[in-house]
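Supplementary Methods S3. Complex input for the KYN-bound model.
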Amino acid sequence: MSSKPSLTLIGGGLVGALLAQQLARRGFAVDVFEKRPDPRTAGFAGGRSINLALAERGLQALRSAGLAEDVLRHAVMMRGRMVHTTDGRSGLQRYGVDDSEVIWSVSRGGLNMLLLDAAEAAGVRFHFGQGLVGVDFDAGRMRVADLDGIERELDAPVIIGADGAGSALRAAMNAHRPLGERTEWLGHGYKELEIPPAARLPPALLRDGGGRDQFAIEPNALHIWPRGGYMCIALPNTEGSFTVTLFLPAQGPYPSFATLPDARTAETFFKDDFADLLPLLPGFAGDYDAHPVGTLATLYLERWHLGGRALLVGDAAHAIVPFHGQGMNCGFEDTVVLAGLLDGNDPAEAFAEFQRIRQPNANAIARMALENYVEMRDSVADPRYLAKRELGARLAGAVPDHFMARYRMVTFTHLPYAYALERGRAQDVLLEQLLRDSPDAASVDLDAAIATLKATLPPLPPLRHG
Ligand SMILES: Cc1cc2nc3c(=O)[nH]c(=O)nc-3n(C[C@H](O)[C@H](O)[C@H](O)COP(=O)(O)OP(=O)(O)OC[C@H]3O[C@@H](n4cnc5c(N)ncnc54)[C@H](O)[C@@H]3O)c2cc1C
Ligand SMILES: NC(=O)C1=CN([C@@H]2O[C@H](COP(=O)(O)OP(=O)(O)OC[C@H]3O[C@@H](n4cnc5c(N)ncnc54)[C@H](OP(=O)(O)O)[C@@H]3O)[C@@H](O)[C@H]2O)C=CC1
Ligand SMILES: Nc1ccccc1C(=O)C[C@H](N)C(=O)O
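Predicted complex, serialized as structure tokens:
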């Protein structure tokens, strides 16, 4: 018999399923209660986005779970941002130095189902169609409701909430003892549209590297149509389509979702602002009218746990805006840290240590995700931003142990997010200073710039690249 405590997880989404697998592999008895029916039999229902960008942090967690190869087999590589300007031109801005630094577009439904299979194979017991309703933390008991609303009570002395941004466990914990919760709404919403596979579009439309295989536009990129205060993006799916997301202010003057309430008004807006994209969206009217406007916010909590009785992980603890493509990646990183801490430690100690390690990093990626919205929708087309990017790339090429773009630290290393934020700030000040008297990056004296860099900042810590 194992002396490890039995663990109750709430939520069998991306983070819950991966955490459950890792804990079961370490010998814990794990029960997962998931509000929705089993997506493997009932079909995957909606969710927050159709596909997601998987980066090094998420991949590393999947490697440690023995699942990375399986996931990558169903992923589309994205080398960088393909930026589409209003004049109809496009150009690739690489994310990393070469093809060893890329991100991957994966299907949320496919990934969730793969993780459920893996967790079940590791011995996790799933209870689908069972949503958490309430918890008596003193008695170590919880109430769940099935799909007909019929409630029952169960023992749950140690309970972990991976039940997403609208976490029911968080609400129960907060009612028991306030968690210091604050939600900052972004004020921008999103709507998903679709570019179908090339075969469903007139051949004359296929350009920009598109038409290759079954894809209408370049498959190995994350496409952005930056328009200053708003933008569209598109991520490829394995079967040749792209999921397009329009990000726009929710309220306020044109253009906002409030001023574009239906496909008719939105089509005129797309004709003006996304003229090259609209013809690639044959289902525009139907999708626009049928798909909801998603809300976006950042969640901050002072406390993530209630002694050793309850803990929040993933979006339940630290939901962030999606613009760095890091919410799931951060949640996956959580699972590795937590599984390691629970192994051999009392839950109260493990939970406290988990919060101590992860909270500053969650706060840092929350901030960088907000900043990345401005970068994606606006700065990518700004000459000053491009000059800093180019000078940064020259420095990184010449002294890679001393300079690395913040985006690369976040996306391609395991350096703590808090470190990436702080180092990125210092590097940015330096780049501004170096470019102050130069018209462009090419005219900066590289040897002098390296000397200033080395005099100002210590070398980077050892990089644990994947
Ligand atoms: C538009 C958009 C795009 C995104 N793109 C990316 C990206 O490219 N890369 C990235 O890394 N991240 C991305 N994210 C973030 C990512 O979606 C989340 O960080 C991730 O889904 C968090 O996983 P989770 O398991 O914590 O929560 P969820 O995925 O929300 O899963 C929660 C689970 O708990 C279940 N549940 C809810 N309530 C209960 C209850 N009461 N009882 C039992 N079960 C319950 C739900 O049914 C669900 O299965 C994006 C988010 C959005 C909104
Ligand atoms: N939206 C955000 O970005 C954030 C939300 N929050 C908090 O979350 C709570 C609710 O947020 P809100 O955005 O209004 O609502 P949700 O995002 O929770 O729900 C919106 C819709 O999406 C569905 N949905 C949500 N997650 C999933 C999933 N994993 N799989 C399938 N469908 C899903 C919901 O279905 P169903 O109702 O069946 O769950 C609902 O129909 C609030 O308390 C808010 O403060 C906090 C931070 C960020
Ligand atoms: N997955 C996303 C979903 C929504 C918005 C952005 C993303 C990104 O991944 C952006 C990418 N990291 C970028 O910086 O170009």
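The mean pLDDT is 95. Residues 74 and 138 are 45 Å apart (CA to CA).
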